[in-house]
Amino acid sequence: MSGFELDARPVAAVVLSSQLAYGAVGNNVIARMIERAGLRTVAVPTVLLSNLPHYPTVSGGAISDQWLSGILTDLLDREALAQASYVVVGYLGSPSQARIIAEWFLAARGRYPQLRLILDTAFGDSDVGLYASEEVAASYGEYLIEHAWLMTPNAFELELLTESKIHDEQDAANAALDLMDAGPDHVIVTSAPTEDADFIGCLLVIDEENLEQFDTGRVQTEAKGAGDCFLGMLTGALLSDVSLIDAVAQSVAGTSEALSGVHPAFTVTCAE
């Protein structure tokens, strides 16, 4: 690592997602959760916005292909990923970004075989429908899914990705297994169906014989970024050598507590 770096820790993960000047979604949450585990993270924006688009005004937009490609190339040239374990991909600003990231990831993994891709297909949800374009939604499948080690779609996204209907836990499991045929070793279905409407599920599909569902009480909130909070906590736990099952359980509980306002998820603690 270059002597220019004040933080001499090796990079543990690279996160590519949306980034806001004001707000707690995308990189603002994912990278922060990983950093809370005591791990150095590189956060690469796919879009740069002033705030959530739910406010009356929003400024900014997608990072250009030239900028994104250049940033990723520089990371390889700096050998920043030499000891990294995960590349985490979330929200994309344009379809071409999926191609750029996929090509870069293959080059990075060729140099550093330990790298694994965690893919969150962040393009829609049941309460709002698609919040990315249809072209962006399709680009995940065209370029990235085949390279993923783990995917974390919500039930709405999983339906679109597999062209299926999900009414219950078995439907979610079957759709996740279909998705695994396209690439990922494991799938976590967030916002999975439960028998009790007062609960929301998170279904981990390790393989055809190993499925675990974690149910937690629904929290009434308009806050955005729950999926990003879960993804960051999950990645931080995995980087801390927590098993996949335990990492999901911890992240489900932590996200629920954060939404309830009882978990210090966004508290920054300075080392003495």
UniProtKB/TrEMBL annotation:
EC number: 2.7.1.35
CDD domains (alphabetical): pyridoxal_pyridoxamine_kinase
Enzyme class name: transferase
Segments forming domain Pyridoxamine kinase/Phosphomethylpyrimidine kinase: 87-260
Source organism, top-level taxon: Bacteria
UniProt keyword annotation of Lipid biosynthesis present: no
Pfam family, one: Phos_pyr_kin
Segments crossing the lipid bilayer: none
Any one Gene Ontology molecular-function term assigned to this protein's record: kinase activity
Keywords, in A-Z order: ATP-binding, Kinase, Nucleotide-binding, Transferase
Protein name in UniProt: pyridoxal kinase
Native source organism of the sequence: Glutamicibacter bergerei
